[in-house]
Amino acid sequence: MCFFFISSLQTKRQSEAFFGAIYASGVGTSIEEKQYYIKAFTKTGFHGGLNYYRATRMNFDDDLEYIGKPYTVPSLMVVVEKDPILTPEFVAVFKDDLFEDMQNDSIEEGGHNVHTENPEGLNRVLDAYLTKFFAKNGVQKEA
Q1: Which domain covers residue 98, as residue numbers?
Q2: What's a Gene Ontology MF term here (predicted)?
Q3: Rounded mean pLDDT of 53-77?
Q4: How far is the C-alpha of 107 from the C-alpha of 65, rounded, in Å?
Q5: Number of domains the chain is built from
Q6: Taking Cα atoms as reference points, which of 77, 90, 73 lies closest to residue 126?
């Protein structure tokens, strides 16, 4: 996705075309939700969201002190087989030595927005991970 293109979406027609293409399958995003986003981004533009990418250099500089230091918090990597952005091949290059305690799981159905496209599948993966995590740490899951 080209963020320069996104920043140029200023009209309702441009926004409808963009969101219609991105969410063409309709899975996970209702017509009402699409219209909400179209209205919001037509009114305000993408400047707020794009500021994250504008700050990339500052964030990079702040993160330099962590180079070579593994993440120490328990982590879960969920790979979605049909994610067109974070493809399984792309995710495969993540080194296990970057994380002291990383679990891996995958979901076959869904894409980059799996939380809306396949919430049941994602919830199964998260529930299994959290159940195992809390059992290992002596915390019981409430019913």
Answers
A1: 68-136
A2: hydrolase activity
A3: 85
A4: 34
A5: 2
A6: 77
Q: Distance from first CA to last CA of the chain, Å, rounded? A: 41
Q: In angstroms, rounded to a whole number, what is the distance separating the alpha carbons of residues 93 and 115?
A: 23
pLDDT given for residue 4 in this prediction = 42
Pair (47, 107) in one structural domain: no
**Residue of 36, 6, 10 whose CA lies nearest to 21:** 6
Q: Is residue 102 part of a domain?
A: yes
Q: Answer yes or no: do 56 and 81 share one domain.
A: no
* 56 and 83 co-located in one domain: no
Report whether pLDDT(127) > 90: yes
Quick one: pLDDT at residue 26?
55
| Residue at which a domain ends, from 63, 79, 105 | 63
DSSP type of residue 142: P
Percentage of the chain beyond pLDDT 70 is: 76
pLDDT at 3: 43
Q: How far apart are CA 109 and CA 27, in angstroms?
A: 11
